[in-house]
Amino acid sequence: MAVGMWHRLDQTGRNLLPFAITVAMMLVSMAPMRLPGFSTVAPPLTLIAVFYWAIHRPDLLRPSIAFLIGLLQDLLSGAPLGMTPLVLTLCYWVLITQRRFFLGSSFLLLWWGFAMVAGAASLVQWAAYSLMEATVLDVKPAVFQALVAIAIFPAPAWILMRIHRAFLNEEG
Fold it and tell me: What percentage of the chain's residues is helix, strand, coil (to nearest 5)?
């Protein structure tokens, strides 16, 4: 009986890992940096995590969880409520529809896919902020943020792959 309880506890911990890792990446991306203007171009680590888990383990990170993590990020960062959940949920939906294309593909194809998603996410955010301000905002910060996200993608993706292989290798 005790062995079964420990097995269930272990499985629950493993099942919560994508959520916990995504929240941890969100918090890291929100850590204050003493660089002027960094917050406007900080890499969206939450998006990287949602991208990875939506493709590899959508059974463990559902769109509702991505939405809630985005809402938490907006609450903690002071961003307009709903901005990050909108972006994360839209990206999740796109990724689920293209999941079979990315599964088993090369890392370069995965990176290319992330580049498309990061670019689109930055443009959606830029458009939403422009609508909220009722003016066309400068697009350069959004483009730069997408480029930074694309450039750093291999490092967090490598970490996520290692965690996935170590703890979550079996499919749901």
Answer: 75, 0, 25
pLDDT for res 39: 63
C-alpha angle with apex 150: 162 to 75, nearest 5 degrees?
85
Amino acid at site 39 = S
**pLDDT tens digits, 37-64:** 666 667 899 999 999 999 999 999 999 9
| Exposure class string for 119-144: b at 16+ Cβ within 10 A, else e | bebbebbbeebeeeeeeeeeeebbee
What amino acid occupies position 161? M
Confidence of residue 32 (pLDDT cuts 50, 70, 90): confident
CB 111 within 8 A of CB 153: yes
